[in-house]
TrEMBL record:
Keywords: Ribonucleoprotein, Ribosomal protein. It comes from the Eukaryota. This is Large ribosomal subunit protein uL15/eL18 domain-containing protein. PANTHER family: 60S RIBOSOMAL PROTEIN L18, LARGE RIBOSOMAL SUBUNIT PROTEIN EL18. The keyword Ribosomal protein applies. The keyword Ribosomal protein applies. Belongs to the eukaryotic ribosomal protein eL18 family. One of its GO terms (cellular component) is cytosolic large ribosomal subunit.
Length: 140
């Protein structure tokens, strides 16, 4: 058997109250469920990975999970936030531009919001075309 912590390392008062409640429930009801939740509350933050709402729904659809209650000791990431987050190209957004084709040539769409690659395709005055004009004038 592994070593069990006797109390959480965190000084969070809400977590401490929940630990008091679940120690009482685990002692009085002799339920393995309450003991397991208590054990998970003692774990460090690195051992309480976040779980997305869609993953939890997907796992609860497995056979034999009907009518059961899911308890997550850790943070649940909200998928609605992921869907309605900042648009690609705006500052501090972690979303990437949609690229139909794969490969190094097509990955340039993601550089500078796709502006450089579009300008090269259209033949407009871009950073690269300015550099080419400058080098041709220097050579002559």
């Amino acid at each position: 058997m592994g070593f069990w912590h006797k109390e959480p390392k965190s000084q969070d008062i809400h977590l401490r109250l929940l630990v008091k409640l679940y120690t009482f429930l685990a002692r009085r009801t002799h339920s393995t469920f309450n003991q397991l939740v208590l054990k998970r509350m003692f774990m460090s933050r690195s051992n309480q990975p976040p779980l997305s709402l869609s993953q939890m729904i997907w796992k609860m659809k497995f056979p034999g999970q009907e009518g059961k209650t899911a308890v997550v000791v850790g943070s649940i990431t909200d998928d609605v936030y992921r869907q309605f987050c900042k648009a690609p190209g705006t500052p501090h957004s972690h979303t990437k531009h949609y690229v139909c084709s794969k490969g190094q040539k097509f990955e340039r769409v993601r550089v500078d919001g796709g502006r450089i690659y579009k300008n090269i395709q259209r033949g407009k005055d871009s950073l690269f075309s300015k550099w080419e004009n400058w080098t041709t004038h220097v050579k002559e």
